[in-house]
Predict the 3D structure of the following.
Amino acid sequence: MFTYGKVESQVSNLLGLIVGADMSTVGTAYSATASTSNRQNPDFPLPAIQDAIIDAVTEIVRAIAETPRHPERVDFRDISGALSNRATLPQNGQGGTPFIGIFGRVYDSSNNKSLLPAPLDDVRNFNEFAATIYSGFTPYWYAWNGAAIEHTRAAIFLEGCVWARPAYVAGNQVPLRDYHERALVHGAVVHLALREGAYQALFGGSKAIWDEHLAMIRAIGNAELTTDAMGAPSTT
Amino acid sequence: MTIAELIERSKRLAGAGTGSPDAWARAEIDLAACVLIAIHELSTEVMRDPERRAWLQQKYTVALDAAGESVDLLTANGSVTGQAGEIILEGIHLGAVIDADGNTLQYIPYYADFLRPQPAAFAYYCLKDRKVITRAMNAAVNTPSDIQSVTGPLTITCSFAPKNVSDIPLNLEDDLVSKLVTVVTRKIEAPKQ
C-alpha cells in the first residue's frame, strides 16, 4: 500500500515544484508533507494537485469496475439488498456507497447459488407458468430488463463495485494495489500538465504510460487463459 | 429422480457430441415444458406393454352414488402416489374393477350395449362421462330402468401417468430421460404441397 502523500511527492517532482537549492534540502522537501514552504509554482496550486490525484485514482477504479473479470473488483466489492423479481436496480450497495461500472455475480439470497443469464422471454414465461407447466422445476435464471432485473428465485443479491470520491489526506492509504503507484503518478500529471505548453513533452510521456495502464486494466480477462487443446483429459 | 435431475440428464444426452456451442445447454425451459408430454407418452407405452405394465399401475377406491355411478375419475386419489387426475382411462380395462362384494366386473365398451340385456351371470361396468357406471350380476335387465348398481365402493386397478417426476419408478427413469429427449428433438414436418 502507498499513501496519497507519496504520490503527490512524485507528481510534484515531475512538475518541478520541489523547493530547494541542494540535494539535502530538496530530498527533505520531497519527503515532507506538501506545503507552500516546500512546493513552489503558482501554475499548480496544491489543491489542484490533490484533485488530480483523486481524479486519477477514480479513473483506475472506474476501469476496474467496468472490466467484468478483473481480479481487483473484490477490493471495491459490495452487494445490493435482497431483490425480488422485477426489482429496480439499486443505486447503492448495502454500505450506502453508489455502485459504479458493471454488476458482477448474481446469486440467490437464501443459499448463495449463482444465477445464470437467460433470455428475458424464458424468465418471464417460467414465472408466468411456474405453478403449472413448470411445476417442480427450479431454475436459477436472471435477465436484465431496462433498469430492473427479472429472475426466477424468491430474492437475489447483486454484486458490484462501489466508489465514493475520497477526500485527500496525505497520510491516508490509496485504496489501490501497489503496482498502480507509478501509473497513478503519471495519471495525475496528465490531468495537470496540459495547461502549460512548456510541459508538452512531459504530458506526452505521461499520457502514454497512463493510457497503456488503463488499457491493460480493461484487457484483463479478454483472452482465455486455457484453450480446448490445453485442457487435460478427464481421466488425469 | 427429481425434475432437475431429469432435465440435466436429458440436456446432456441431447447435447452429447454436438460440439460447441451446445444449443441444448440453453434449452432447459424447452425441456421443462415437455416433461409432462414425455411422462404421458412413456406411461401409455408402459401401459401397452404387458411386461412393464405393473410399474405404473395403482389402486383407486371409488365410491358409487345411488344410481351406481362413480365420482369423476379425475378426482380419485391413487394408492401409490396419492395424487388425483393421473388415471389413464383406457388402462382401466387392462386392469380390474372389483366391487365391495369381491366380484370382478366385466367391461362393456359401448354404452348402448351396457343398457341392453346381457348375461346376468356377470357384473358389468362401462365408462361414461368420466365415470364408471355399474350393473349388478343376477339381475335381469330388459330395459335401462332394470339396471341395478353393484355394491360400492369399487376398487379399480389401472394404469396411470404420474404428475410428478419423483413418482416415476427407479427402473423407468432411464426410459423417461430417453423419452424426453425424443419428444424435444422430434421434428414435425409440414405437409408437402
Notes: The beta strands of chain B are 57-62, 96-98, 106-107, 124-128, 131-135, 154-159. Residues 3-15 of chain B form the longest helix (13 residues). Chain B has five helices and six strands. Residues 18 and 111 of chain B are 53 Å apart (CA to CA).
